[in-house]
Specification:
The complex is a heterodimer of chains A (about 450) and B (about 160).
Chain A (H helix, E strand, L loop, with lengths): L2 H13 L30 E4 L4 E3 H11 L7 E2 L6 E2 L2 E2 L4 H8 L2 E3 L10 E3 H11 L4 E3 L8 E3 L13 E3 L6 E3 L3 H8 L4 E3 L6 E3 L3 H7 L4 E3 L10 E3 L3 H7 L1 H4 L1 H48 L4 H14 L2 H100 L6 H13 L2 H12 L1
Antiparallel strand pairs in A: 1-2, 1-5, 3-4, 6-7, 8-9, 10-11, 12-13, 14-15
Chain B lengths: L1 H15 L5 E7 L2 E10 L10 E7 L10 E4 L32 H13 L9 H9 L1 H15 L5
Antiparallel strand pairs in B: 1-2, 2-3, 3-4
Classes of the chains: A mainly alpha (about 450), B alpha+beta (about 160).
Chain lengths: ~450, ~160
């Protein structure tokens, strides 16, 4: 079913004259799942949406009227806000049965009907069976309403008046029974305190004067708890200490009230001042923030702060100068800190360069030492090499001399020994020998 | 009529079994649409120990229109306006967010939750929200001071 036909149906059904099931007095508790989330009552004529949420037909109708935007074809579900276009009128029979089974009291319970019955039966009970429902008077000319149970079998109108014989008052026939037994003022009643009997209508007047009635002490508002019979009240009041300080207490009371009033007034004023302070503080904080943003134009900031302050009250003036001073001092301290930092930096710099210099010097010295050592080693090597070179030369010369001696000696002895072979050998030796010194010399240079 | 029935029901439920730290009464016995709610500052928040008066006003169209919530006690909070009205900004109370199935108990519990965890991104007091985000310590301090000043004197 779409929205339009649903609303039409809803309008039609609500015009019917039926019992309001929501106003019934529930006797038993019921499952919370049976409660309509809109009216918080057990479902009445439940309907279902596509998102499976269930509402009373009437509640959903009001929800659609409220939430649908200008004749749109859809509305949000009142539980989950899913856009919905269709409404299903059929809900599980189980749900309807459970709702109908909830025990309720008859709506005429106040009139005296003691019936407790399932909610599903209430409608028919009220319309057909309840003795306390109102029905039109059988006398059509009367036009008044009458309770079903009072309806006489002969169809007589009970709205006529008849006179009570004792109090000479006109009473409607319908109410005569009640009047006769309970309400008639001429009935006799007994005073509970003094035991005397009198007419009911005089009883209240009697209670004001009855000497046996206990009445509270006049100082009861100040804490005297005693209740005394009216005869004895005079003697009690003469003795009661609270009576004598009564006037004083009263004066105190009024004073307290006045003071309270003044305090409240002052509190209000104080609140106003507090608010003012807070707003001033806020504006100052803002201006301070702006000042930090552009520190270079501090003078300008001060001017700005001052103009702002001029707009506000005198109190703010004192406040702002205080804050400007604070800002200035803050600035000073920051500058000092920066100075200290730069000092420390230069200090560090010089120290670092000093250490570098020292290290350099040491290394240079070391290098000089190493150089010297190297030189001395070279010198020693040269010194060591030199004699060997000399020796090599000398040996060469000496060896050359000796071979010439040998050959002369062999030429001398060649006559005795067949010598061409030995002569040849010595010549070979002589040609090989001279190379050696050059070899040793080469070795020397290698060293 | 239907709304009165529902309001009466919710009121009796709330008075019979109130949520933690919340008590409810009618501002005027004859008017079902104006409630006085007393909310204790939740533990662990700077509002702890304070007792805040919250005025809850229900529209005639309730539950189809949302109730309005305002603080009768001054409170330092990003989501509560800092004026006499003390209006509270609750997402679920906006007309387009409200659902008829929401209950007043849920609204009150949500408001109390907001005391515990303010939502600075959804604030009505930008200054307090800024402070809440940037200088949480100072915010706690001021909120505690305000609580001491306004919410503890038993007014």
């Amino acid at each position: 079913m779409d929205i339009k036909s649903f609303l039409e149906l809803e309008a039609a059904s609500s015009s019917e004259d039926s019992l309001d099931l929501r106003s019934l007095d529930l006797v038993s508790s019921y499952d919370s799942h049976l409660m309509c989330p809109i009216c918080h009552c057990p479902f009445v004529q439940p309907v279902r949406l596509d998102c499976d949420h269930v509402f009373c037909q009437q509640c959903l109708g009001s929800a659609i009227i409220t939430f649908r935007s200008a004749d749109a074809n859809e509305f949000p579900c009142p539980s989950c806000r899913t856009p919905t276009t269709r409404i299903s009128m059929s809900v599980p029979r189980l749900l309807v049965n459970m709702c109908d089974e909830i025990q309720v009291r008859c709506p005429s319970a106040e009139a005296g009907c003691e019936e407790v019955l399932p909610r599903g039966h209430v409608q028919s009970h009220v319309q057909k069976y309840c003795g306390f429902r109102l029905v039109p008077c059988p006398d059509e000319s009367c036009g008044k309403m009458l309770r079903q149970k009072d309806l006489q079998t002969d169809g007589r109108c009970l709205h006529g008046y008849c006179r009570c014989e004792r109090c000479s008052e006109d009473v409607m026939e319908r109410d005569f029974e009640d009047h006769d037994k309970v309400l008639c003022p001429s009935l006799e009643a007994t005073c509970n305190d003094c035991g005397s009997t009198m007419r009911r209508q005089e009883l209240t007047k009697h209670a004001e004067t009855c000497s046996e009635v206990s009445i509270p002490c006049a100082a009861s508002q100040y804490g005297c708890k005693s209740k005394v019979r009216r005869v004895d009240i005079g003697t009690h009041e003469a003795q009661c200490p609270l009576i004598s300080i009564g006037p004083y207490l009263e004066a105190q009371n009024t004073r307290l009230k006045q003071l309270e009033l003044t305090t409240r007034h002052l509190q209000q004023r104080n609140e106003i001042f507090e608010d003012g302070m807070a707003s001033i503080r806020a504006s100052l904080a803002e201006s301070a923030r702006a000042g930090n943003g552009a520190r270079s134009t501090q003078g300008g900031d001060r001017d700005r702060a001052r103009t702002e302050v001029d707009e506000s009250t005198e109190m703010a003036n004192a406040f702002s100068s205080h804050t400007t001073q604070y800002l200035l001092s803050l600035h000073e301290s920051l500058r000092e800190e920066v100075n200290q930092m730069s000092h420390a930096l230069t200090d560090l710099d010089t120290r670092a360069s000093m250490t570098i210099m020292n290290e350099c010097l040491r290394i240079k010295e070391d290098m000089a030492h190493t150089n010297a050592a190297l030189n001395s080693v070279r010198m020693q090597v040269q010194w060591l090499m030199n004699p060997r070179l000399h020796n090599g030369n000398r040996a060469n010369v000496m060896r050359a001399n000796s071979t010439s001696n040998d050959s002369s000696r062999t030429s001398l002895t060649s006559t005795s020994v067949p010598g061409p072979s030995s002569n040849g050998a010595s010549s070979i030796l002589g040609s090989l020998r001279p190379r050696r010194p050059s070899d040793s010399g080469r070795e020397g240079t290698k060293l | 009529m239907a709304s009165q029935k529902r309001i009466g029901k919710e009121l009796s439920e709330l008075t019979a079994s109130p949520p933690e730290g919340i008590s409810v009464e009618l501002a005027d016995e004859a008017d079902l649409f104006k409630w006085k709610v007393f909310m204790n500052g939740p533990e662990g928040s700077p509002y702890e120990g304070g007792k805040f008066l919250v005025n809850l006003t229900l529209p005639n169209e309730y539950p189809f229109k949302p109730p309005t919530v305002s603080f009768g006690t001054k409170i330092y909070h990003p989501n509560v306006t800092n004026d006499e009205k003390g209006s509270m900004c609750l997402g679920m109370l906006r007309a387009d967010e409200w659902k008829p199935s929401s209950k007043i108990a849920a609204v009150l519990e949500f408001a109390r939750q907001l005391l515990l965890e303010p939502m600075p991104d959804d604030a009505v007091e930008g200054r307090i929200a800024e402070q809440y985000k940037s200088d949480r310590k100072r915010y706690d301090e001021i909120a505690r001071e305000w609580t001491r000043k306004w919410a503890m004197s038993g007014q």
